[in-house]
Amino acid sequence: MLALHRALDAGYRVDALLAMFDETGERSRSHALPPHLMQAQADALGIPLVMRRASWTDYQTVFTDQLDAFASLGITHGLFGDIDLQAHRDWEEKVCGAAGITAVLPLWQAPRRALVDELLGLGYRARVVCVDARFLDASFCGREFDERFIADLPDRVDACGENGEFHSFVFDGPRFAQAVSHELVRVHELKPATPAPGHFFVAELR
Question: What is the Cα–Cα distance from 43 to 67, expressed in whole angstroms?
Fold first, then answer.
């Protein structure tokens, strides 16, 4: 969200948001969010949402197909929120470049903790919706991402979750016309076999 906020401040016009979902279209990749909440978030931001389905096997193919579609509409830049993971940037620049689109990373190389302070200082609110059990237990999942949450994190866990320790859903803030109404139903375990075996706790929201 902070990458979007900074890009808008810098004068970029954002014509679309892209969300990648699993093969069923029922849950977004990594965050495991239902489509109606993603749509409600986009509506609150006033930006059209494009939703695509993909397995991990054909993820890049589907993603690049959508980039080609964006390019055909005259879109020239792709916005990403990575901070300092070079492998992520390399992939983004590769797939964007193939479509003739320039990858833009407004948060690149900024101090991680300073970004958290900026996000919260601007008044954005988020809920933690997925945690990696290698780093955090189930008690962290479903909580609001705030100073108390950050203070409770173990020392080895990054406050941004940049290493995949957790993922969050931004539901309110200065770019939102209204907060995204949602309710935490439960927290459950998820143990996917692909693309590599994992163990996660996921917040089910409605």
Answer: 21
